[in-house]
Write a structure and sequence with these properties.
The chain has 251 residues and is an all-alpha fold. It has 11 helices and no strands. It has a domain of 173 residues. α3 crosses α11. The two termini are 22 Å apart. The N terminus is likely disordered.
Length: 251
């Protein structure tokens, strides 16, 4: 059983809140060997326990990110992740905005994009948790040693297909409920016919895919912010396991 000695990096959490605590844990686990003399009175921890603590910290933090996304206005009132009118269709929006009869519909389209993403985000937490549970010790230490977004990148790699499958039906239902396609399709299709003749770029008429892609991107942005918080101070996540893994040396 490998021992974790008195970790200066973790002990300095209270004094140096900008320290990447998770990275320090990884370094000390790797660097600690039989040469510590066995003189520490602190409880010894195995690699498996450290990874279990990481999984628990990520689970708590990432669930918070998913919860933020799924709240009413989690997307719609967050300027960073709010889903806008498709960039390639801005000319269509500008055309519609010049016509009073369409102005309200333009606003409704954008709000619906975001409501659909908020609703779909409710499906995300279980998918993230399953991915974290399946994390190997090797994966865990790569995350511990990695950059601020290492866990987020791991989740992108392991959950994007499942998130896409979970998001799309919810997004589709939300769009259908307000009959958004009945407004969007004729306008976008008509615009594309003109664009094809004039040599301009056509717009993507697949709203389901557009909102799904933007929703997942915004969700991962929130997850990334939560990961950064975890790296600053995992002790703040006060479960018994986290106290043992990250907090025992502060006693």
């Amino acid at each position: 059983m490998k021992k974790i000695g008195l970790l200066f990096g973790i002990c300095s959490i209270m004094l140096l809140p900008s320290c990447d605590v998770l990275n320090q844990v990884a370094e000390d686990v790797v660097n600690t060997g039989s040469g510590d003399g066995g003189g520490s009175s602190k409880p010894s921890l195995t690699n498996d326990e450290v990874i279990a603590g990481l999984k628990e910290a990520l689970t708590i933090g990432i669930q918070k990110g998913a919860d933020l996304a799924s709240k009413v206005d989690g997307f719609n009132k967050n300027d960073i992740i709010r889903i806008p009118w498709p960039q390639e269709a801005i000319k269509v929006k500008e055309w519609a905005n010049d016509k009073p009869m369409f102005k309200e519909e333009v606003d409704k389209i954008e709000v619906t994009f975001n409501r659909a993403a908020e609703e779909a985000s409710k499906k995300a937490a279980p998918i993230f948790v399953d991915a974290i549970k399946g994390m190997s010790v090797t994966d865990g230490f790569e995350i511990l040693n990695g950059p601020d977004d290492a866990a987020t990148n791991y989740l992108k790699k392991t959950t994007t297909p499942a998130l896409t499958s979970a998001f799309k039906p919810v997004v589709h239902d939300a769009i259908e409920t307000v009959k958004l396609a009945s407004l969007w399709d004729p306008v976008a299709t008509g615009y594309n016919k003109v664009a094809k003749v004039t040599g301009k770029d056509q717009v993507n008429t697949d709203l389901d895919q557009y909102v799904t892609d933007k929703g997942i991107s915004g969700l991962f942005y929130l997850v990334k912010q939560e990961e950064k918080k975890i790296r600053k101070d995992p002790v703040a996540q006060v479960t018994d396991l986290l106290k043992k893994v990250f907090g025992s040396l502060l006693d």
